[in-house]
Design goal:
The longest helix is centred in the N-terminal third of the chain and has 32 residues. The protein is an all-alpha fold. The chain has one domain. It has a two-stranded antiparallel ribbon with strand order 1-2. One of its GO terms (cellular component) is membrane. Keywords: Membrane, Transmembrane, Transmembrane helix.
Length: about 375
């Protein structure tokens, strides 16, 4: 935790350049709308992991084992927490009936915004911890509360129709119900409108802001060195899109991951209490070493994956699939149950089904609910799954 790296300006510039170049390459590689298949997602996932590990090797070489271990732990922690976010992304795509060929474009801009906002939050978090160490007690309590909610399943019901990002967007821009290719804006009769694709980006960004409530305190438990916490978060977030497509359709098989993530959050929360106690109450209170945090994360995720595959979840438990499929018959993979598509949204008129919270009845016309049906501001917003 007490790393004090002398990171030169050129290193920050180099990190920014790597991020921008990789984003540009990714955007060019996916400039045409197409469905991301498993093989393509696997290749890109391997690329992002390789880049993250190479950067970690550079940190090891330049700043030593302690800094390298902190980076690796923070990256793996953020990577594991992001898996839980994928369930929410699937739910948002399903609710808005986003065609599969447009989903990468949405996630690209979602990731771009996440990099920006996460940098702001992490910078603020580092500054606060440096000036007011006792805030670590608050961060620890947030993580323990999040872990408890995850175990109880209190925030499984994420309702995209109450997403604050969509509600705020509707206040400043009229929105159309029909998709217009990959466009975010269209003009009709001289008036500018937003498309449902823009609404989905707003929903993804708002969801990431909520995810940051867990992610920022968690990574600050590993290190308060700005270069470590931002670079680890950035490389984890960059690989989020390919990870989504890689695990699409497989998320329900890893039904124990949420329990593992809850345990990891609880462990990191306790680590923060020890950390704060050491610095605020008594230096005799021990630190939890970073290598132990890394070991706990690796072992927890490995056990969850292995046990999930060996002991599949009973089908139809409580009438709800673990991949976010709602009991009203609407798939969260992006399609309705009216026979058109189950994994990428409507293949017909391309109309977003956005509005009421009671779902779409099988066989209901795709355009029967519009963006204007979404609740007004002040009715609440979705939370981390």
């Amino acid at each position: 935790m007490d790393l004090d790296l002398d990171v030169p300006v050129w290193a920050w510039v180099g990190l920014g350049a790597v991020i921008v170049v990789m984003l540009a390459i990714d955007l060019l590689a996916h400039r045409g709308a197409h469905v991301i298949k498993f093989k393509e997602a696997a290749i890109w996932s391997a690329v992002w992991v390789a880049i993250a590990l190479v950067f970690g090797g550079i940190v090891f070489w330049a700043y030593g084992a302690e800094a390298g271990t902190a980076y690796t732990t923070a990256w793996l922690l953020e990577k594991s927490l992001s898996v839980d976010n994928l369930f929410v992304f699937a739910l948002i795509f399903g609710y808005f009936k986003v065609p599969r060929e447009y989903q990468h474009r949405v996630l690209f801009f979602g990731v771009f915004g996440a990099l920006l906002f996460r940098g702001i939050f992490l910078g603020a978090g580092v500054a606060i911890v440096e000036r007011f160490t006792a805030i670590l007690f608050v961060f620890g309590a947030i993580l323990l509360w999040s872990a408890w909610k995850m175990v109880k399943g209190d925030d499984d019901d994420v309702d995209p129709s109450t997403n604050i990002g969509v509600r705020l967007l509707k206040r400043v821009l009229p929105l159309k119900d029909e998709y217009h290719g990959q466009k975010f804006f269209i003009k009709e009769a001289g008036k500018r409108y937003g498309t449902p694709l823009l609404a989905v980006v707003a929903a993804i960004e708002a969801a990431d802001l909520i995810f940051a409530v867990d992610s920022v305190p968690a990574v600050l438990a590993v290190s308060d060195e700005a270069f470590i916490v931002y670079s680890s978060n950035a490389f984890a977030i960059l690989g989020l899109r390919s990870l989504f497509f890689l695990l699409s359709g497989l998320l329900e098989r890893f039904h124990l991951l949420s329990k593992a993530l809850a345990f990891i959050l609880a462990f990191i929360g306790v680590k923060l209490f020890f950390q704060a106690g050491h610095e605020v109450i008594d230096p005799a209170i021990p630190h939890v070493p970073t290598w132990l945090s890394l070991a706990v994360i690796v072992v927890s995720l490995t056990l969850a994956i292995v046990l999930s595959l060996r002991r599949p979840a009973p089908e139809g438990t409580d009438g709800e699939g673990t991949d976010g499929e709602s009991t009203d018959g609407q798939s969260t993979d992006g399609g309705s149950t009216d026979g058109r598509s189950t994994d990428g949204g409507s293949t017909g008129a391309g109309t977003a089904a956005v509005g009421s919270t009671d779902g779409q009845v099988a066989g209901e016309p795709t355009g029967s609910r519009g963006l204007d049906d979404a609740p007004a501001a002040g009715e609440g917003s979705g939370t981390r799954r």
